[in-house]
Structure formats: C-alpha cells, structure tokens
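writing this on my phone so excuse typos. first protein, seq and then structure
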Amino acid sequence: MSDNDVMEPMIHEDREPGHESQLEPKPDWAPRYPGSGRLQGKVALITGADSGIGRAVAALFAREGADVAILYLCEHDDARKTKEIVEGEGRRAIAIAGDVGSKSFCEQAVAKTIEAFGRLDILVNNAGEQHPDEDIRDITEGQLKRTFQTNFYGYFFMVQAALDHLKQGSAIINCTSVTMYKGSPQLLDYSATKGAITAFTRSLSKALVDKGIRVNGVAPGPIWTPLNPFGGQKPEDIPEFGKDTPMGRPGQPNEVAPAFLFLACEDSSYMIGQVLHPNGGDLTSS
C-alpha cells in the first residue's frame, strides 16, 4: 500500500480518537508506586501515547527511567500534557503528530526518535480505533480499510521502520484486545484487527527471537479511555461500560500500564509471543 492509498482518519465521523482533556471523569493514568530504574537509559516509542493506555504507559516508563517518543494523531492538547508528565518524571520527551496508517510517517517518526535520543529500545504499538455497528452490512468499505490501516497496518509499518534500530535486549509490545478472544458482535472489524495483531505478535516473536528482540502483547478488557465515549461505543451503552466483567467495573489505564512495563523490562526475559490479560477477570480470554 502506497501513501496515496492511505485513507483519511475517521475523526469527523464519530469524533474519534477523542480528547482526554474533555473526558469526565478523567481516566487514572498516574503510576501507583515509586520507580526502581527498570528502564533506566532506555528509549521507548509509544503510538497513541497522548491519552488513555498510551499516556499511562508513557508515565510509567518515564518513572522507570525511559525517555519517550509520544506518537499521536491530532490531539495536541493531550499530547502536550503527556509530554509534561514524562518531563515531570525527569525524563526527555518528544511529541510527534501523524497517522500511523502511513508507512512514510512511521519511518519519519522513528527517524525523529533516533535524531532526538540516539537510540530506540522499546516499541509499543498501541494506537487504535473502533466503530460500533449492529449489522455487518453497515460497515462500509472505507471503514473496514481505515480500521485495518490504523490497528494493523500501523503496527506492521512501525515494526518495519524500527527494526534496524532495535538490538539484543530490545522489546516490542503490541496492544491487542479481549475482543480477539471472546468476540464482539458490534465490533466485527475491530475485533478482526485484534485477531490479526495477536497472530502477528506470535509470528513476529519467532522471527526475531534469534536477534534477541522479545515480542509480546497485552489484551486489555474494557478500559476507561477516550476511545469508547468519543464514538467507540454507542452513547446509551456508556453507563454500563465494563459492568459485565467479573469485577463489575471498567479498568483504569494505570491498571494496564504495569503489564506493558513487565514485558518491556528484563523481568520478562524468558517470555516471547505471550499475551497478558488485564481485563477485570474475564476468563474466556485466557
């Protein structure tokens, strides 16, 4: 797919990806414990890092000693806040706006990261979009292409762009979803992309193990982020969001971020191709 084939983000259709600055109540992103230097001297590139899970991961990585490249689509206010959070932890940060569905943007983002920090150790593929539809016939060709472009092609392009800079001890962490395991009748295209991400994670882990690069994934359940209230779920469903989990509530981004930290640092040195499941106790995804 050339950049001429890249479809415009669907931010005008349903307000996605949404602004955390406009969300009430605000998601909990703040790390819950002091850092212990587990990522000291490392550089992480995180897509979709302006808000939600991506912001929480950026904050936690910074607390553990990493400099962070914050990739985001167009939410400049949220990205500035995340940059301030990273810098508040005493680490360096850059914010790079653009569409991960564009191969050339992914290449430019990695180049800017190397220019700013001189290295890249951790790639977190997190950016995503979803659009609920009751009937598969309501999913337009444009929506199907756009959802795969962001959720899957973006991951693929980022790995391609980053690989020359990753080395022994580096880590790639892909964000999949509980919907890959349990299914979602209203998110057919989204859940299909998450299935592709899981297969990609497992296959890529085997392809890169000889290089000493570990590839794993995280499959969150319902997490309170801008994605759902800004178009990812029907408005009438938001009051019940997450209440169908065994824990009876949605998760918070800072309850997911430690899974990414575990997979990014040496604590998970004997794991590749695995997926962690912070999902409120939904055992159908294990």
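second protein below, same order as before
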Amino acid sequence: MSRLLYIESSPRKKRAASIDVAHTFLNEYRETHPTDEVITLDLWNHDIPPFDGDIIDAKYAIMHNQAHTEAQRKAWRAVEHTIAEFKNADKYVFSLPMWNFGIPYKLKHYIDVIVQPGYTFNYSPADGYKGLVTNKPALLICARGGAYGSGTGGESLDLQIPYMETILKFIGFTDIRSLIIEPMLSGPEVKDKAVQKAKENAVKWANSF
C-alpha cells in the first residue's frame, strides 16, 4: 500500500480548474489503486507554522550548531510535524493556479517551511547540496489564465512550473510530471476544451502513477 499526498493550493475550490482536474485524477487513482491511501492537504484550511520569531531563530540555531531555547524547541516542533507529514507520503500531487506568473503564497509558505537542512536536504563541502526526499513521483496539475507553453511567446513569463520543478529537484525528486490547463481566460469554449483535454490526460496518467 502506498500513501498519496494531494496538496491543494487554490482558494477558489469549485471554480478552480486545477482542483477540478485534480479530483478527476484522484477519483481514477482510487479506482485503479484501491489499496492506496489518499490524503488531502488543503493549504487554505491547514495550520502552516508562521516562519518568524522563535521558529526562524530555531532554524538559525540549528545552522550554527547552537542549542535551542525552550521556546525555540517548542516552536520548531510545529515545523518538524509539517515536514514529517510531507515526507511520510510515497507519491505527491500538487494542484496549483498561476498567480502573477508564479505560485500562490500559501504554497510558497508551505514550501518555505518544509525545505529545511537536515530534513529535506543536506549540504557538505565535498558533495554540495543533496536532496533527501528521493524515489518518489510528483505530479503538478497547473492551471494558467494565459498560454505559456512552447511556441506561445509567453515561455519566459512562466515562473510556476520552473519554480516547482527547481524546488522539488532540490529536495531530491527526479520523477516530476506536469499536467497543464491553459488558457483559462480565453472564453468558455476554449476553457472547457482545455479542461476536458486535461481530464482525459489525468485519467490516463492516474493508471500508471
């Protein structure tokens, strides 16, 4: 049995194309992987630790090999819990809209909490940076208002997929797949066609994920 962690980052819920396609993927995944566990992490209804105060002081204490104060130790437990929750999965699905060419701030906040030295990556002068979350696949289900794919002329403005791929590779992922839904702001007919195509691909991909 595998554990799939679905990380949802759009606040639009029923109006979000990324969530709509993700649910199609997950429904098919449950059908084809009946013994697997699927866990949903809705970042808009999840207590992500604020990365300030005692938490950030605790991080720098670790980096400088200093002991934590009691307040720092207590605060850091929330970070460790969030990281453990993430690392305990075997497979990952992220649904995310493009915001200002990048990702929603809730997802960025979550990433800033889980990407920590000694937990999701290590560094040594001899080997450089080494990711610690390995041998696990990740699927990015990305909705965008415009078109940013190859040949559109908007490639350089896409900071959504490149950022997610960069940060996931940094912490050890090598199997990263992207399912793109675009352009969502080009009228109902174009939008519906893009969503339908993405759902068809989602069903295909769910079988082998």
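The chain has a mean pLDDT of 95. thats all i got for now
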